[in-house]
Amino acid sequence: MTDTIFALSSGSPPAAIGVIRISGPNAVAALEQLSGDLPEARRAGVRNLRDREGQVLDRALVIWFDGPRTATGEDIAEIHCHGGRAVVSALETTLSGVSGVRKADPGEFTRRAFANGVIDLAEAEGLADLLTAETELQRRAAQASAGGGLSRKVDGWRDRLLHLSAQVEAALDFSDEDDVEALPPGFAEQTSELAQDIRSALNAPRAERLRDGIRVVLGGPPNSGKSSLFNALLDEGAAIVSAEAGTTRDVIERPIAFAGIPFILVDTAGLRESGAGEIETIGIGRAREEFERADIVLWLGPEGEGPSGSLEVAAKSDVAGYGKDSAVYSVSSATGSGVADLISGLIDRAQQILPKPGLAAFNQRQAQTLAEALDAIEGISVTSDTLICGERLRLARRALDRLLGRHSTEDVLDALFGRFCIGK
Ligand SMILES: Nc1nc2c(ncn2[C@@H]2O[C@H](COP(=O)(O)OP(=O)(O)OP(=O)(O)O)[C@@H](O)[C@H]2O)c(=O)[nH]1
Ligand SMILES: [K+]
Ligand SMILES: [Mg+2]
């Protein structure tokens, strides 16, 4: 029989309330051992919870849900107790003493939900992202995946593949009669439309872009005002600023959200050909590496001398700076003027790079399986052998099934569910 698992699903104690979740065949019996009797299913009730000696451990709200119409697909019981460390620990000890009941591994509740078909793999991934979401944009994208938006899209493609397969089957059935395996008119078009839809989804930004944030690297010669601008954008004194050329020698990065969009600001050592000491020279090498990794480079140096594609910023606008004609942004970290405009500019750029707000975006793993599906579909042409068409459609469908976790391997599952904390 399946183990019954439990865990503190709320934040770590001490807290006002602690929620202990129990899931599995013995969940309801385990709760009843502590509470003596139970309210009706799906109705909350207040009960004294006792240990095996009959000592009252806490007076708490209890509720239970009969499976399979639950979050895990199993029977679930919940204890909403006082969130003190000792209260929670006494209840956990008592629960551990109930036979067939043990503490849950990280992500085990969600893994059961997946195993019992309550959610598919794409929804589980969305849920993992939702729990780690730190900005509004991350939350909305994760919500869309967790809510099944992405799965519905993939299911739609899968239905279209099934429809195409049916046409191939029909063509094969008739083929002995006149030796012509004619695919119906429209087959080629439907196939290429489907390929086009999947291709455009693949060309859209990946979900990881949202998770990792947009990397904005500040570059320029020593003393061009990079660290000062870095601090002004962060609104804190994270980086050392001084009149001495070569103040910043290492790469400093800080995450920040503008308009709910996650950014990583990166301050670098000023670039110079000579006069730099050993440590600064290493820093300059690192700065150049950062330019390669950057999504956006803000160039504070002389016009046209920055890495290609960088945004020209005229810094120190309160005093004579480089006086760049082509500077898109003119800022003064000393007075703050132009900083808000620069931030809006960063937001605009980020929106072009990131998935559209509220739309579920495919992550790297999902994109990989989508690319396999696309590859199989692209190999189909009207001139191909009908049997080969059928096989390719089947391969494409298998890839989409893997995306949704219908044929997932243990390592994929371990990697995903390991991302969850205990209690989820
Ligand atoms: N007036 C004025 N001075 C500024 C402004 N920004 C920076 N400075 C001054 O310029 C000098 C260099 O500033 P930093 O921010 O350290 O320059 P940096 O580019 O980080 O320099 P390195 O780390 O050495 O490469 C300091 O004395 C700052 O006070 C500004 O907007 N206006
Ligand atoms: K400096
Ligand atoms: Mg600096």
UniProtKB/TrEMBL annotation:
Q: Which UniProt keywords apply?
A: Cytoplasm, GTP-binding, Hydrolase, Magnesium, Metal-binding, Nucleotide-binding, Potassium, tRNA processing
Describe the location of the GTP-binding protein TrmE N-terminal domain by residue ranges: 4-117
Task: Pinpoint the MnmE helical domain residues.
Answer: 121-421
Annotated (6S)-5-formyl-5,6,7,8-tetrahydrofolate binding sites: 21, 78, 118, 424
Give its E.C. classification number: 3.6.-.-
- Give GO MF terms, alphabetically: hydrolase activity
The role this protein plays is: Exhibits a very high intrinsic GTPase hydrolysis rate. Involved in the addition of a carboxymethylaminomethyl (cmnm) group at the wobble position (U34) of certain tRNAs, forming tRNA-cmnm(5)s(2)U34.
* Xref: NCBIfam families: PRK05291.1-3
Name this protein carries in UniProt: tRNA modification GTPase MnmE
| Species of origin | Qipengyuania psychrotolerans
